[in-house]
């Protein structure tokens, strides 16, 4: 806090005079403001009283005629209006203020020049519909209450070139739906305020001028020699010793003090050259070292941050700013663990390892930002002062986001590759098995038909047994058919097709079955999707299988059951795909079996209700369209199957590669 004795001489003189004159000036200002307020309040009160008087005159006129035969207030006659107009014309406020009457629709009943005009849409100089505002507020006023509005208005008829602030006081005469109003310019009704204000301000200005002149005179008389000495001392501090000697050539106390400083300056000047040379040399070395350090730390590829022993960040380089998306001013002073996932416990674990091992390298962790988690590799070590005491830590962070993304993509690719090889190998095996089973199956089916024809009508038991065998053969036939489809022995005819076509066809077939189970179908199929190269029949089979799985999953559950179907375009890197998602609100698929559902013969359905080949066949069909199929599922949100199929290139009509494979 600055003490009074530490202030400059001129400041002390000024403060003394202000202390004396200030209260007088403040009192005068407050008096002027109080006087202005009182005069303005008196002028507005007079305006309000005039409105009330005109309102009472209107009421008296209405009561003098009684009421209509219906019991309601009697409508005003032309004589009533003429009488009121005469009274209103005799009333003026200021130079141009006048009273008027209008109804709540803005039509003027009594006015000096505009009787009968509708001014409801009138706007002031700022575009404000002030008449509309008066009408809205007036009808809500309680009986006997006043309303007030101020607006800027330029009276064009009077030749005014600039807008002036106008005040309107109004009351609502409910019996005749009249608004009795008085409007006047503020500068006219406040006119008596101006002379008194000018007189008071003149006196105030004279007081201020007197205070300034007195301050200047006292500073010249008392403070000028002291100020001159201070100026000379300041020049001396800057190296101009001759100026200081010129200040001290008098015989008073200031002159003696100036000569003493000049003597001291000559003695100091003898060592000045040596000190300057030493400083220049040391400064050059320091600057070189500092520049090397700055380039190393600031422009390094990695992120560098230091913290004291309490974990408070003391430095962060440009790389750290870019990584976190924050300025170093924001980071410095915060605790380092505020950016760690795991917070204080993670920071304590890292610190313990540094103290135990001396440093750490490539320690994996995550940093927290406002919108994401950043995986990083951390290397850190202790920092020591010149006495060898630990003063903090330094960490070097490397953004591992790209590395993690590559690892995740590699893992997914390995899983997909293994699944593809597994299905292809199994497909070759299944194709052979299906062929070998089909021949004896056809013979068995033929023999059962012969036996059925040769059985007598009385052999009901044998006939029933034959029918059982025929059903078993039919089931075996369906399994063989699925095996042949799974092994891709059917021909694929790929043409340009809109994915919404097989999707709608499959939904048309499955629609009634879904509705029978009270399943709500929600569709969101994007219009004007680009074509893909595909076999519409096989894609329809994929969608039918997925709809059937969703139907079975939701069969028997309570509550609302929903099947949501979407199609849209998506961009994946340099590849554009059409995406189809099929979501059901069933119980979901357990996480420990989600990686098995595309394996042949794996099924979660009861024995006899599923072959375990539906999803593997779907997987093979989508793969043969160069697409991908995957799922996400949990007990709370149900199951979503997502299919990506590449968009057909411009001018591409058939899949050449597939045709060559089929023809080969």
Structural account:
With 664 residues, the chain is an alpha+beta fold. The chain folds into five domains: 33-194, Beta-Lactamase, CATH 3.30.450.20; 225-270, no CATH class; 300-399, 2-Layer Sandwich (Beta-Lactamase); 413-486, Orthogonal Bundle (Helix Hairpins), CATH 1.10.287; 495-663, Histidine kinase-like ATPase, C-terminal domain (Heat Shock Protein 90). 51% of the residues lie in helices and 19% in strands. It has 16 helices and 17 strands. It has helices at 9-63, 78-89, 130-138, 186-189, 193-237, 241-247, 253-298, 318-324, 328-331, 343-357, 401-454, 460-486, 500-516, 536-554, 614-624, 656-663, and strands at residues 98-103, 108-110, 147-153, 164-173, 178-185, 303-308, 313-316, 359-368, 373-384, 390-399, 495-497, 519-525, 532-534, 561-572, 575-584, 628-634, 638-646. It has a five-stranded antiparallel sheet, sandwiched between helices. It has a five-stranded antiparallel sheet with strand order 7-6-10-9-8, with helices on both faces. Strands 12-14-15-17-16 form a five-stranded mixed sheet, covered by helices on one side. Strand 1 (98-103) and strand 2 form a beta hairpin. Helix 5 packs across helix 7, helix 6 (241-247) runs antiparallel to helix 7 (253-298) and helix 13 (500-516) packs parallel to helix 14. The two termini are 96 Å apart. Residues 656-664 have low confidence and may be disordered.
